[in-house]
Amino acid sequence: MLAFCAVAMSAMAIVTSRKVPAGTQFQISWRVGAPDDGGEHPASEGWPVWTKIIAAEEHARTQQHLVKTDDSPPLAAPRPRAAYYLLWRAMLDGPNWPAAYKPYKNGVVVMDPYNVSAADIAVVKRDLNATVLMYVDTTDMAIKAKNGVCAADNKNCNSKLPCSSGGPGLCCTSFDCDRFKNAKLCAADAFYRGLANVFKPSWALNLLDTNGTSQPLCKYYFGPVFCPFQESIDAVVPYVTNWVLETGYDGLYLDEFFSTATVAFPLALLKARKFDANGDGKPETVAELVSQFKKFKPVLAARLRQGLGDGAVILANTGGPQTSKILNGVTVEMEHCSTGAKLEQCIAFLEAQHKVSVLPAMSVMWLTGESAANPAAAQCKRVAEIQAKLPYVMAGTDFYDGSHVTCNPTV
Fold first, then answer.
1. Would residue 406 count as lying in a domain?
2. Are residues 70 and 175 in the same domain?
3. Residue 334 phi/psi, 5° resolution?
């Protein structure tokens, strides 16, 4: 036990003596009696794990995994952390701030950059002590597209919600926001205007007409679909990473960081149309689009990590099983993890990502819209089952998409 204390004090001295920027996070794994192989040893391998969050100066938190030995006293497991999606600047001025957001204290808050300043980020960290991640869409580019073509005429992309106005899309002003009911289209701010300046419209996925004109293709009102390639990566990554660092976010939330081109793009539609995906004005085939996505999506992720540094937190909503050594973790929507085999597949996916995650490792299960087929109680039960096996997984409330399900408040 004395040896353990000495090791612990030494590790803490290393962490606390290092000057770190606000919001930086570290994770220390102490495995008394475990093999000294540098790897993680989850509870499934016989090494019980408890997670403890310690508040430190400048909101730097050290996530410790303490391993109980036979002669050590029992350790109480902490309350699970929670995540919130999507926070908007206007909510900080609402009557619900910060009381209604207390369940997400010490957790993760995903915040849209619309009109957000460094002072606003400081308020969120002060009131919630949360990891604050800047939202960015990795498949839809929020640039103005007056003549955009909708891949499907639905509530996400239609005459009332056009391809893109060049802004953040539907933005919220209150805690009970539901983008399908009470959110309104917002004009571009400094961040989105700057994004339009660095991203050329020709870099989007454009449908080519026989008369030589082109039209950007959209799936949502967020903006035209794009597939990363070297020139677009070189322009967008420095802009996004500099904004994160200068504004004081703890990292990035990569939305629509899809696992395959099949999920990312309407390939059936593209097979029947001529389109350009790399800005040269010449048509690509679907096979070339798939190859471009497979080659440059990892490059995009690697460049974002390089620009932000190892201390930043990067989470990704992947839309399907995948693992990445660039990420701290992934987010999964509960409707994909209902029961039985689907639930086990989700657990396996989360475990696989955890093995390669950048520290501090964390993932989120987004609670989805409550319905008769997907009741809140059942969602909370499934999340609890997952957290019992995987303590680094947070329950996340997706308010922006109409879900107001909250499990196990951590106030």
1. no
2. no
3. -60, -25
